[in-house]
Amino acid sequence: MALEDARDQWHECAKTYWQSLRLNRASFLSTTLVLAEGAAFFNRRGMHVNAVKVGRQLMTSRYCDLRYVDEALYLEGWRYFVARPDTTYSLTDCVSFVLMARERIREALTFDDHFTQAGFLRLPA
Known about the structure:
The protein is globular and about 35 Å long. It has 6 helices and 4 strands; from the N terminus they run αβααβααβαβ. It has helices at residues 11-23, 32-44, 48-60, 71-82, 91-102, 113-117, and strands at 28-31, 64-67, 107-109, 121-123. By secondary structure, the chain is mostly helical.
């Protein structure tokens, strides 16, 4: 979201980091819940064009492994969410944490401190 919204406080950092990822042809994993959250974020701000652009990029990129959230992953994420009443994690965060743990992924491309709180390395650091 920071990459697409020039008004975002993290925009320049995201842009620089994203360019380095593109040069290295890095691949990444995301979920349909993250796509849905991003689309809603942009749409609420009157940026429907950005919502569609980002969604299409995630769905067609050869560098993005976009995972559809099935019932088992969703329920495991829900259990993670329910078990942590002392946090402000979103359900999307929790599903991401579960999937990252399953896939043994330790780094998250995000500015969301929740990933650090959950024990992941936030990139860019």
